[in-house]
Amino acid sequence: MFLGITATVTNWDVEGTTCSLILEDNPLVDFVELPDTCQGLYYCNILSGVVRGALEMVSMKTEVTWLRDMLRGDDAFELQLKLLKQVPEEYPYKDDE
């Protein structure tokens, strides 16, 4: 939302722990072309870190990987999110003290 990127959530698995985010627009790649020597580079990898960090802030340990990248010749930008575990919240103090 803050980056101006909209996404569609699809491809849920049976357990409900894995899904895909398909990015409809990605302003980070405007005017970017990867040379042939850098085709192994995930140019927008910062987005996977942003998503993983945001989910950690709400107590979800996740693994975020790129499935498709338009800079590498695919037809869309797609991130796969996999929930590893739900971390219980810890409070540094007790309410009755």
Automatic annotation (TrEMBL):
Gene3D superfamilies: Trafficking protein particle complex subunit 3. Keywords: Endoplasmic reticulum, ER-Golgi transport, Golgi apparatus, Transport. InterPro entries: Bet3 (IPR016721), NO_sig/Golgi_transp_ligand-bd (IPR024096), TRAPP_component (IPR007194). GO terms for cellular component: endoplasmic reticulum; Golgi apparatus; TRAPP complex. Its main location: endoplasmic reticulum. It comes from the Eukaryota. It is found in: Endoplasmic reticulum; Golgi apparatus, cis-Golgi network. SUPFAM superfamilies: Ligand-binding domain in the NO signalling and Golgi transport (SSF111126). This is Trafficking protein particle complex subunit. The lineage of its organism: Eukaryota, Viridiplantae, Streptophyta, Embryophyta, Tracheophyta. The gene is LOC102586597.
